Amino acid sequence: MAQDYAARLDALRAQMGDSHAVAIVPGSNMRYFTGLDFHLGQRPTIALVTRDGFGMIVPKLEAIKVTDRADLNAQSFVWSDGDGYEGAFVAAVDALGLRGGVLGMDGMTMRVTEWLAFQAIDPTLRAARMERTLIGIRARKTPDELDAMRRAIAISERALARLMDEIQPGLTELQISARLTALMAEEGAARTAFETTVQVGANAAYPHGIMGDRPLQRGEFLIIDFGASVDGYPADITRTFCLGAASDEMRHIYNTVLSANIAAKAIARPGVRMGDVDKAARDIIAAAGYGDAFIHRTGHGLGLDIHEPIPQIAAGNTDVLDVNMVFTIEPGIYIPGMGGVRIEDDVVVTERGIDVMTSYPRELVIAR
Description:
There is one protein chain. The protein is α+β, with helices and mostly antiparallel strands. The chain has helices spanning 5-13, 28-34, 63-67, 86-95, 112-121, 131-139, 143-164, 173-186, 248-267, 274-287; strands spanning 21-24, 46-50, 54-59, 75-79, 102-105, 126-129, 191-192, 197-200, 220-226, 228-230, 233-234, 237-243, 299-301, 308-313, 326-329, 332-335, 339-342, 345-349, 354-356, 365-367. α9 packs antiparallel against α10 (274-287). The longest helix has 22 residues, at 143-164.
């Protein structure tokens, strides 16, 4: 996927505020703004974006990744295992004029190791939190990003349709998970966006439960949370099924969650407060008597990270939705001892409302 990294870096420079440079460690921010992909490990690697330049503190064995990217016009500060990284930090601070300045950073990803290395050089160097600025730029998806997510969703939904033709009593959570992962690969996924999570029966009462060898039995819920990844962009889909007949209570719970999902999607559009989208779903569930059983937010941002903090579809959030933001809508009800229901769709904000990118049926499917 071709990206205009110069434009992305310029967008960041326009929002640097008082920072003399923005430090970005390996991860989704570095991939987004530079296209460089490094492992966040024992060898410090940092991109330093200044108002008029770009520097890279990089270990010698990885330096070729930077020199091969002539478009970045990077000033490299290379260090070796034998010499250690301290000298590269000193060189970068002096060459980029950072002494006594302000270093912007993503406080959620910058490690103490890197910050202490900067502080050892200049104790007067100050830190400024930039995570909302970084993710705020990333939150408005480009057509290429949206296309990648749509392809990931299509692969995922084809795989799920094939899986449901194979579901039968006795299959364990781990077996179902492995099979769906394999089917996504057969449908064209280079990798999954996260571990395919399958929860059956009482284990479905835990939103982030641990899978095991528990076999699927008739008359209980089956929650499948899964997604393929295309060009680094994910699908994140959850559907809930029942093997055999569902009780009246199970149907009531399921239909309540479905109504909450529909209500949240109906209100979402540009300018609407994110907390109001959450409230639309939460009010439906509370009115049905299950308010205490809806124990998580209604949705989260979706992009290079499977959980992005903007937009955050959570109670009380007064931030407003904007065009091209992508997020999930995933209300749920969880009943200890019985199980749970979650219905998760991926949506993108348009000029008029939202486009629901997921299309797999949402009505309760009774698997035979």
